[in-house]
Specification:
Number of domains: 3
Helix content: 55-70%
Shape: globular
Strand order of the largest sheet: 2-3-4-1-5
CATH class of the largest domain: Mainly Alpha
CATH topology of the largest domain: Zinc Finger, Delta Prime, domain 3
Distance between the termini: 57 Å
Oligomer: single chain
Order of helices and strands: EHEHEHHEHEHHHHHHHHHHH
Number of helices: 16
């Protein structure tokens, strides 16, 4: 395993999957993970050249754009040829022929290109295999038919399927869990963004009773508020372009644009804090959390909607 990995992908989601694989390998060796700001070259190379004071190894993550990182290509190459002991690194960037050419001989180069729409089911089968499970091709095709070709959505659905099943994932269980689910999820998100608390809780209960895993519901809410934050910051947006930039489907952007006036910037920031707290609670928390998952979600949705729900079409004052 080379000390330097170069991850090239225009998809934030696919890049994160590749990075997670590399990170897991170094964490298994006891390395601590540190992410540095690519704009601060001094901090980047200080991090790369500094060994851990505790002797347990350091894994440095550098995420940036080609413009930010290409100017340091020769320094990255020199570092990779003779890295300090117990230090490893990953550079995560979109497309960069210059970095690929400079580092190709000294780094573990990983390129992650998204599949064509008609290849999505095959990608899904490979993704499930990488998780240590099997998914039949017809089951993957059924899941794509139900949810579309957004890879992040599909990966979240697979997480739910692996939690809910044992053995190979077949078409029957996919149809049972996801037939009609997409429209239910959209209705739920609409009620949350309208801040209609009673209806949001009703649809939340229906999703959970229908088999939707709490972590999948949480992930969907997080994606929607990522879209909302981006829309609030951009003003008028091109839904397709922003969706590609955020690695989301345009439906998230359109929904955020339609309901953006129901949340001011401070409320969006508060929603992210609530989502982070709920994520920790759903995963057990630092000290454990004994509340039922459905209760954690209920509290999250109720607090995001607030004490004074906004009716559809109403303007906040």
């Amino acid at each position: 395993m080379k000390p330097l990995a170069l991850i090239l992908s225009d998809s934030e989601f696919l890049a994160s999957l590749e990075l997670e694989q590399v990170r897991a390998q170094w964490m298994k060796k006891g390395y601590a993970v540190e992410e540095v700001d690519p704009l601060d070259a001094q901090a980047v190379f200080y991090a790369l050249d500094t060994q851990s004071l505790f002797g347990d190894g350091r894994f440095v993550v550098i995420r940036g754009t080609a413009q930010q990182l290409e100017q340091h290509a020769d320094r990255f190459k020199a570092w990779a040829q003779s890295p300090p002991p117990e230090v490893a690194a990953a550079i995560v960037v979109g497309r960069s022929q210059k970095l690929k050419k400079a580092l190709g001989g000294v780094a573990d180069v990983r390129e992650a290109a998204g599949p064509k729409p008609w290849e999505t089911a095959d990608w899904l089968v490979r993704h499930v295999k990488g998780l240590g499970r099997q998914m039949r091709k017809e089951a993957a095709e059924a899941l794509v038919e139900h949810l579309g070709t957004d890879l992040r959505e599909l990966a979240t659905a697979v997480e739910q399927l692996t939690l809910a099943t044992n053995g190979p994932i077949g078409v029957d269980v996919v149809n049972k869990l996801f037939r009609g689910l997409e429209s239910q999820v959209w209705v739920f998100l609409d009620t949350v963004l309208r801040r209609d608390r009673s209806q949001a809780l009703r649809h939340l209960h229906a999703l959970v009773r229908g088999g939707q895993h709490p972590l999948a519901v949480h992930a969907t809410l997080a994606r929607q508020f990522r879209a909302l934050a981006a829309v609030k910051g951009e003003g008028r947006v091109n839904a397709n372009e922003l969706a590609r930039e955020l690695d989301l489907t345009p439906a998230y952007i359109n929904r955020a644009t339609k309901n953006g006036r129901n949340f001011d910037p401070s409320e969006v920031r508060r929603a992210f804090r609530l989502l982070a707290d709920a994520d920790l609670a759903l995963k057990g928390g630092e000290f454990g959390d004994d509340r039922p998952d459905e209760l954690i979600l209920e509290v999250l949705v109720a607090e995001i909607c607030g004490d004074h729900p906004v009716a559809a079409g109403a303007r906040r004052r």
